[in-house]
Design a protein that fits this description.
434 residues, mainly beta, six-stranded antiparallel beta sheet, 33 strands, globular
């Protein structure tokens, strides 16, 4: 590790049979706690905050929430369409048309925050402009408690701007900078970026702008997936010398340490992470390619035996959403084109997956958030940087999906505890209160 000095190591061996009973080609090397301080000053590791754009997971990857929608909104979320009575009591809503009143949309005191109300659902309202960009670029959004962050991405450069969620003028966080973006996330006062131009680095950039710091610069282990929880950043690294060797890492900004939590050998890439309070959920994908995917694994954050939650059966498993006691995910047939595409649910403790939604296999689908006994989900179809998107709500116990909005967009759909955000083809960023 170029930018980290090893403080100590405590390896707790885990028997291979713990996982290989379910996946013969996956072997846990060790559950590890390897603390390594990433002292930026000692690395000389700052990168000038200049320029912007990157294609990486951005431009052509589709309008995936990429943990944006589900990430900030959380597993079960807050708010939702039912609202709360508020100080005025129910009497303040007497006579209101819950189908069309934007201050009492679908329920008393459920305010659309400037948007219209249609059939009991809030409608999108503009909050500000996205920065202008070339047609081949793509937008990705991330949201924190107060601001929207707009990532303008091209194949080898990145630009970041931000604006208040309540509306207002955008400000530049990162001017256009040569950088091939492999992933990005928000945590605390910083933006974390995976750079894949010439080297494999994990970078940190203040949300207010300024110089980027290098947190990870180990050429033998490339960061490939990144997700935050309340106070730590989690990422997967793959060995460049031995492609079967992977690590799951924990970065603790408050302590200034990076810890290797799990090391394993596998014929699978660990390509996506999702997180809840005590576990990580990892999607595996075969190195050899071919139809279908590997399993979904549950990994204890404090180390311990890995659990195979879902074993793929001639299908691809992706778009994971932890919610309450369950994990929601998408299963699609391994055929091209897919013959089925479904939202599935499995208990985090393990069990038999059940079908929540059987969707049109011609469109990709994403579970966005679970709240108030309903699942909000999205279907999308289109070409790089232009997507026909529909957002729906349905009871988690089963039943019909109600269409809420249908638009052509040029970004992912990001979310927080109450709302969704995206970029319209007109270039305006809009908010939809759930």
């Amino acid at each position: 590790m170029k930018c980290a000095a090893t403080e100590g190591m405590n390896r707790d061996r885990v028997g291979p049979d713990q996982v290989t009973r379910a996946i013969k080609s996956l072997r846990v090397i060790s559950v590890v706690i390897v603390a390594a301080a990433w002292l930026v000053a000692s690395c000389g590791g700052s990168v000038a905050s200049s320029d912007d754009t990157t294609a990486g997971s951005g431009g052509s990857a589709g309008p995936s929430p990429d943990a944006s929608a589900a990430g900030a909104a959380g597993a079960s979320g807050a708010g939702g369409s039912s609202g709360a009575a508020g100080a005025g009591g129910a009497a303040g809503c007497v006579g209101a048309d819950l189908d069309s009143n934007p201050e009492h949309c679908g329920a008393c005191f459920h305010d659309c925050m400037g948007g219209a109300c249609k059939a009991g659902f809030c409608q999108p309202v503009e909050v500000g402009p996205a920065p202008p960009m070339a047609p081949e670029w793509g937008f990705r959004l991330k949201v924190d408690e107060t601001r929207l962050f707009i990532f303008a991405i091209s194949p080898q450069s990145l630009q970041i701007t931000s604006l208040p969620k309540a509306g207002g003028a955008p400000s530049t966080v990162l001017p256009e900078t040569p950088l091939m973006l492999g992933g990005f996330a928000l945590l605390g006062d910083s933006i974390y970026l995976m750079d894949q131009v010439g080297s494999y680095r994990l970078l940190r950039l203040p949300k207010s702008g300024g110089a980027m710091s290098v947190l990870w610069d180990e050429q033998d282990f490339a960061p490939v997936s990144l997700t935050p929880d309340a106070d730590r950043m989690w990422f997967v690294t793959e060995s460049q010398g031995n492609p079967d060797f992977v690590r799951i890492m924990r970065l603790d900004p408050a302590k200034g340490t990076t810890n290797s939590v799990v090391e394993l050998e596998s014929d699978f890439m660990l390509t996506r992470l999702a997180t809840d309070d005590d576990s990580l959920y990892v999607r595996a994908f075969p190195f050899a390619g071919g139809p279908g995917s590997g399993p979904i694994l549950r990994v204890p954050k404090q180390g311990g035996p890995l659990q195979v939650l879902v074993q793929a059966k001639d299908e691809a498993l992706y778009n994971m959403l932890p919610a309450g006691q369950d994990l929601y995910y998408v299963a699609a047939s391994a055929k091209n084109p897919p013959t089925f595409r479904r939202v599935m649910r499995v208990a985090k403790a393990g069990g038999t997956p059940t079908v929540v939604l059987d969707a049109d296999p011609a469109s990709d689908i994403y579970p966005l958030v679970v709240e108030n006994e309903h699942l909000w989900w999205m279907r999308s179809k289109g070409q790089p940087s232009v997507f026909d998107v529909g957002i729906y709500r349905m009871p988690i116990s089963g039943g019909d999906s109600v269409p809420v909005v249908d638009e052509v967009v040029k970004s992912n759909v990001a979310g927080d505890a109450t709302s969704f955000y995206w970029v319209r083809m007109s270039g305006e960023i809009v908010r939809l209160v759930r």
